[in-house]
Amino acid sequence: MEPVGAKIAIVGAGAVGTSIAYAALIRGVARTVALMDVNERKVAAEVLDLQHGLEYVPRATVLGSADPQVCADADVVVFTAGAKQKPGQSRLELAEATIELTRTALPPIVDAAPHARYVMVTNPVDVVTYAALRFTGLPRRQLFGSGTVLDSSRLRFLLSEHCGVAVQNVHAYIAGEHGDTEIPLWTSATIGGVPLLDWSPLPGRPALDAAARDRIRDDVVGSAYRIIEGKGATNYAIGLAAVRIVEALLDDEHRVLPVSSLIDDDAVGLSDVCLSLPTVVDAAGAGRRLPITLSDDERAGLRASAQTLARMQRRFGL
């Protein structure tokens, strides 16, 4: 029998792609999970390993192939294929090889699944998302990047540890580039409904002053480098973060997530770049960006982040 229900396709069977597939199966987000990778032996082995665990997850079918047609009829395509980040290497240094791969690999997938929503995860995700929009001609709502969804999760975890509260009660976003110029939006952040900038420490906990906030911001930015240095790749948290985006799409959640989408106005002082701002994600894709309150420093930081990305786009002729 043909499986009935949502289908997600994951392009790239490396550490990130397989972590997304694994998380998707455990959370039961789709009835069909398809893996595509040019390495036929690798994708076949990954599919077989996942299939052997199907007894223990919600009912699903796992497929795999090097042929883009394995993505046909997908509701969501998650693109993870790209060059692997090396220790000490910035995300933007990955751009040239990954952009060329996106240019050749993505259009046949879009031909196979023209109506899917596309979530770009490959780093540097903002520049790759901009390139993918150019190469495919898809609208900004249909194709967008995972952006700073993971970075915001890192920020919330660190704030919860510092303040001694559950991470689920911390609401704070990282915005801008998914990379070294990203900025925390302290002005709009809250902990249990209390504005973060008004937070009084719990007994025995340190103050959340400017110095502490700077340390937390640096920890968020540097965390990926530390993980890559220690084990070669970040994969578990981005797997969970990407599946959270997929759930928002498939379940039409209208969930606010800081995904990377095309800025087509002067909201941060510069147009025609992809960067992350709190955005409503629903069945149609990346929708309205929220008019979030920004301090002058935050607005300047977003502008600087956008300018960094625009320079990188020009460097690669985008």
Automatic annotation (TrEMBL):
Beta-D-fructose 1,6-bisphosphate binds at residues 156, 171. Residues 7-145 form the Lactate/malate dehydrogenase N-terminal domain. It catalyses: (S)-lactate + NAD(+) = pyruvate + NADH + H(+). The chain crosses the membrane at residues 6-26. It is found in: Cytoplasm. The modification Phosphotyrosine is found at residue 225. The keyword Aminoacyl-tRNA synthetase does not apply. Substrate binds at residues 85, 91, 123-126, 151-154, 234. Pathway: Fermentation; pyruvate fermentation to lactate; (S)-lactate from pyruvate: step 1/1. The active site is at 178 (proton acceptor). Allosterically activated by fructose 1,6-bisphosphate (FBP). The keyword NAD applies. It is an enzyme of class 1 (oxidoreductase). InterPro entries: L-lactate/malate_DH (IPR001557), L-lactate_DH (IPR011304), L-lactate_DH_AS (IPR018177), Lactate/malate_DH_C (IPR022383), Lactate/malate_DH_N (IPR001236), Lactate_DH/Glyco_Ohase_4_C (IPR015955), NAD(P)-bd_dom_sf (IPR036291). Residues 148-310 form the Lactate/malate dehydrogenase C-terminal domain. Keywords: Allosteric enzyme, Cytoplasm, Membrane, NAD, Oxidoreductase, Phosphoprotein, Transmembrane, Transmembrane helix. NAD(+) binds at residues 16, 37, 42, 82-83, 104, 121-123, 146. Pfam families: Ldh_1_C, Ldh_1_N. Its EC number is 1.1.1.27. Catalyzes the conversion of lactate to pyruvate. NCBIfam families: L-LDH-NAD. Homotetramer. Belongs to the LDH/MDH superfamily. LDH family. HAMAP family: Lactate_dehydrog. This is L-lactate dehydrogenase. The gene is ldh.
